Amino acid sequence: MKNTIFTGAGVAIITPMNADGSINFDEFAKLIDDQIINSTDAIIVCGTTGESATMTDEEHRECIRFCVKHVNGRVPVIAGAGSNDTRYAVELSKEAEAMGADALLHVTPYYNKASQKGLIAHFTAIADAVNIPIILYNVPSRTGCGFDVATVKELAKHRNIAAIKEASGNIGYVAKLAAACGDNIDIYSGNDDMVVPIMSLGGKGVISVASHVIPKQMHEMTKLCLDNNFAEASKLQLEYLDLINTLFIEVNPIPVKEAMNMIGWNAGPCRLPLCEMTDEHKAALKAVLEKHGLIK
To answer: According to DSSP H, which parts of 7-148 are helical?
Structure first.
């Protein structure tokens, strides 16, 4: 059995931007501190929600470097280092390890995609190159490329492949994954609306978007699951389901950045091709934030 990277609710943290689109590191530091103060169990930097796809190489590295330094060991830092180019993924992973990241998040190759044989070769090459644990990221709706259960089972044999962020939305697949892999791989929900179902199958927590606005509640939901109190955890899951769904009313991270701006953070805009929310969706988001007492 491998060491678990974290249990509970890790935030897939946004990257605050200035009006000109540059990274607002001052606000980033405040956001990191606020998340940790409010019980977030891990920080996942430069993921999808962090807009890594529109960062330059240097920005990507600087965000990881800054986050690791500012967190300063208070919670684990997991660095997004995925790529559809294996050589680049290896290079970035080695640099993130040297910067002090506790673990890596690696999405399946996108656009060029890969066969299952190719996925095994890709992730094995990355895992062989580092000495920190890796979380596989299964999100076929974004990448067009997903893991077969047998592929995850094979990859889980590697000493450095420790977990999977599961965002297929298919609970049947998660059940098969848990049955096939057992303790060889930890499962994290990649969807805020499936935390309790996935943790009921043995999941260790969630890599969350909703934790930006309800960090204490997401932490508490996962804690209840870890304590086998699924009845109370389900109440929280259902209580905040409308908020969770509204945070995905448009492509992530557009709504969560708008929500953070509404709450009073200087999250700034998203970078193109992600654009401003429609007025209709802004009104819906504002209404659900008001309902839950997050804004007045």
So the answer is: 25-37, 57-71, 86-99, 116-129, 140-143
Residues 2, 30, 110, 137: which is the catalytic one? Answer: 137
CB 11 within 8 A of CB 205: no
| Residue 111 designated active-site | no
26, exposed or middle or buried, with CB in 10 Å at 0-12, 13-18, 19+?
A: exposed
Beta strands in the chain (DSSP E): 8-12, 42-45, 77-80, 103-107, 134-138, 161-166, 186-189, 205-208
Phi and psi angles of residue 19, each rounded to the nearest 5 degrees, phi first: -60, -30
**pLDDT tens-digit profile of 84-115?**
999 999 999 999 999 999 999 999 999 999 99
Contact, 247 vs 210, CB < 8 A?
yes
Backbone angles phi, psi at 67, to 5 degrees: -65, -45
Q: Which of 153, 165, 204, 223 is catalytic?
A: 165
State the residue for tokens 């990221």. 137
* 165 assigned to active site: yes
Question: Is the pTM for the entire model greater than 0.90?
Answer: yes
Nearest to 100 by CA among 124, 69, 127: 69
Identity at 242, one-letter amino acid code: D
Tell me which DSSP letter residue 48 carries: T
